[in-house]
Specification:
The complex is a heterodimer. By secondary structure, chain A is α/β, with parallel strands linked by helices. Chain A has helices at about 10-30, 35-40, 45-55, 75-85, 90-95, 125-135, 155-165, 190, 195-205, 215-230, 245-250, 265-285; strands at about 65-70, 145-150, 175-180, 205-210, 235-240. Helices cover about 45% and strands about 10% of the residues of chain A. Chain B is an alpha/beta fold. Classes of the chains: A alpha/beta, B alpha/beta.
Chain lengths: ~290, ~325
């Protein structure tokens, strides 16, 4: 029995199956030339919940609600999810980063799923706040979600965006913080701690929830809370761990920021995910 | 920090391999710091890709990773410099110039402090595309008073970059490129402020280039030589102050000039050379090779240099054009 109710009526189990398939897509995309696989794997539950439940369809094959990706490398999450939803072909995604490929590792606006050109860190929160402000002024009830990482919180620009969102009480805005304690040169806590993340956003006028970013139930709860919050913006602080959900690749943890193609055994990871998908699908048929 | 992580995170931004990369700039900075206790190093997260991992490990009390916070880094450097330190600040070219320009002008250039900005991933040279590319950084900083700009054409000049930065009395921008593969053995070579280096002599025309385009210019000159066009190649490692005397002498002796840079044609080396010629009232066959006032995309460096017309083929084509105009 599912404890939580999703927005669209889809079950937690179905979303967990989708998340596992997104993880599989992430590994399949990255195995050829390496990639930001650990992030994609850790964000798969957020992607499943966001793209397959929270964001409403627009009736024209896309989404009514909006998603802003602030950093470039987490694009792998969106690629994995939009391959599962049929918006991308896996064959195209496997050309990621090849010379001349239109699928960029750090995606540019105009590619499906990317409203801004990310990659220069910490700029998404302001743009998402501006988008939310405009939608509110235009009378739209679309919601705006913006994903960024804990490392990005080191950029002052993030807090300028949060200040505006809090001051403007942009209740149609939801920040999703990938709190994975990882940045290019090591652990965020050691390099330049940004904790306590939830208290910081509260001080900037947000309602916050701190959740396990790999728990679909937690995520459904938090998104519901965000929608029910009508007087201020919302920030969900999602604690995640690189490679979360794939035990055999956890030992690659120190290599996690960029996973070179020779750094891990992709086949083992994919086999583990396949077993998980099989287990979940068996549960569904019971 | 484990060695394997260092290898991997360096490769993350440079060539995506799982192999160790050379560190000629970073080693030179460590040696300079051991000889001069005023030198400190700051980095905005990108430690191995900016070759500062050895500095971090060997001189930890003089190294700070300030996190992903470039503007903050320049402000911190300003405070340190006002207290007598010589901060070398590290990030990628795109971020250290464009994310912190006001801090650079107000907290480094106007007070003429010895703050040394060190950027990596120059011009088009990154797989990460527009967000990580700096095709306008030279143009921007060339317009900032007190700022000097130096760009090495290869690892044999990396130690000289540290020396030039220390010799310049004020803020400096070093536009660095980490070699993507171990270079053949080389002897470190010196450079002087305001001086270009004639890398190849030739009397028919002159190619004035910098950074990654110097090797392309030399390759183009070899091709042109086989066609009977004898080109001088100047390595203008000192982009600001520019070696105006060498530009004028090259104009007088060869009668045609092209410039070649891993940068937009707007405001960079080509513009600087054109300004010198125009100010002296010199008209001659002239062409700027560079990114044609457009945004680029991610890819491997040779692919991008070809795609955006700044490789040896493009330089040789431009050289033939100016030779036809020269008549």
């Amino acid at each position: 029995m599912n404890r939580k109710r999703s927005r669209s009526g889809v079950s937690i189990l179905e979303l967990e199956i989708v998340a596992a398939k997104i993880r599989r897509n992430v590994l399949e995309i990255c195995r050829g030339q390496g990639g930001y696989a650990a992030q994609g794997v850790a964000l798969a539950d957020i992607a499943a919940t966001l793209y397959f439940d929270e964001m409403r369809p627009d009736g024209k094959g896309w989404f009514f609600d909006r998603f802003i990706l602030s950093n470039g490398h987490d694009a792998i999450m969106t690629y994995g999810a939009l391959a599962e939803s049929g918006h991308y072909e896996m064959e195209d995604l496997k050309t990621i980063n090849a010379d001349g490929s239109w699928v960029d590792q750090s995606p540019i606006e105009g590619q499906p799923g990317f409203e801004i050109t990310a990659g220069s860190l910490g700029q998404g929160p302001s743009q998402a706040a501006g988008l939310a402000w405009a939608l509110r002024r235009q009378g739209s009830n679309a919601r705006v979600h913006c994903l960024f990482s804990d490392g990005e919180l080191q950029e002052g620009n993030v807090w300028e965006g949060a200040m505006f969102a809090g001051h403007q009480r942009l209740s149609n805005l939801c920040y999703i913080v990938d709190n994975n304690d990882m940045q290019a040169s090591g652990h965020t806590r050691k390099i330049m701690s940004v904790e306590p993340v939830d208290e910081k956003f509260e001080a900037f006028g947000f309602k916050t929830r701190r959740i396990q970013g790999t728990s679909v139930a937690d995520l459904l709860d938090a998104f519901e809370d965000a929608r029910a919050t009508t007087d201020k913006p919302f920030a969900m602080i999602c604690d995640t761990k690189p490679w979360d959900g794939i035990d055999c690749l956890q030992k690659a943890q120190p290599l996690a920021h960029f996973t070179a193609k020779d750094a891990v055994k992709w086949d083992e990871g994919i086999a583990e995910i396949d077993a998980e998908i099989e287990r979940l699908e068996a549960e569904r048929t019971q | 920090m484990s060695e394997i992580l260092t290898k991997l995170e360096a490769a993350d931004f440079i060539n995506r391999s799982f192999k160790p990369l050379p560190r000629s700039y970073g080693d030179a900075l460590v040696e300079a710091a051991k000889a001069d206790s005023r030198i400190v190093a700051l980095c905005a997260d990108l430690v191995p890709p900016t070759e500062t991992d050895r500095f971090r490990d060997e001189l930890p009390h003089r190294f700070e990773n300030v996190g992903i916070a470039e503007a903050n880094m320049i402000g911190i450097a300003g405070g340190m410099a006002r207290s007598g330190e010589i901060p070398f600040c590290h990030s990628f070219c795109a971020f250290i110039v464009k994310r912190a320009l006001d801090q650079i002008t107000m907290q480094a250039a106007y007070p003429k402090l010895p703050i040394k900005l060190v950027g990596f991933l120059p011009g088009v040279a990154t797989i990460l595309g527009v967000s990580h590319q700096a095709i306008e950084d030279v143009a921007i900083l060339r317009a900032v008073p007190e700022m000097a700009i130096f760009e090495p054409s290869g690892p044999e000049y990396h130690a000289a970059m540290v020396r030039l930065a220390l010799d310049w009395d004020g803020p400096v921008y070093l536009r660095m490129k980490r070699p993507e593969t171990p270079p053949p053995p080389f002897e470190p070579r010196t450079l002087s402020i305001g001086k270009g280096v004639i890398r190849r002599e030739g009397g028919d025309m002159t190619i004035i280039s910098a950074g990654l385009c110097v090797a392309e210019s030399l390759a183009a000159a070899t091709t042109l030589g086989e066609e009977g066009i004898d080109a001088r190649v100047v390595d203008m490692a000192s982009i600001k102050p520019l070696d105006a005397a060498l530009v004028l002498e090259s104009a007088a002796s060869s009668g045609a000039i092209i410039t070649a840079e891993n940068h937009s044609i707007v405001g960079g080396l080509g513009s600087a050379v054109a300004e010198v010629l125009a100010d002296e009232g010199i008209g001659l066959p002239f062409k700027r090779i560079g990114v044609q006032d457009r945004f680029c995309e991610g890819g491997t460096t040779p692919y991008l240099m070809n795609q955006f017309g700044i490789d040896a083929t493009a330089i040789a084509d431009a050289a033939r054009q100016v030779m036809r105009r020269k008549g």
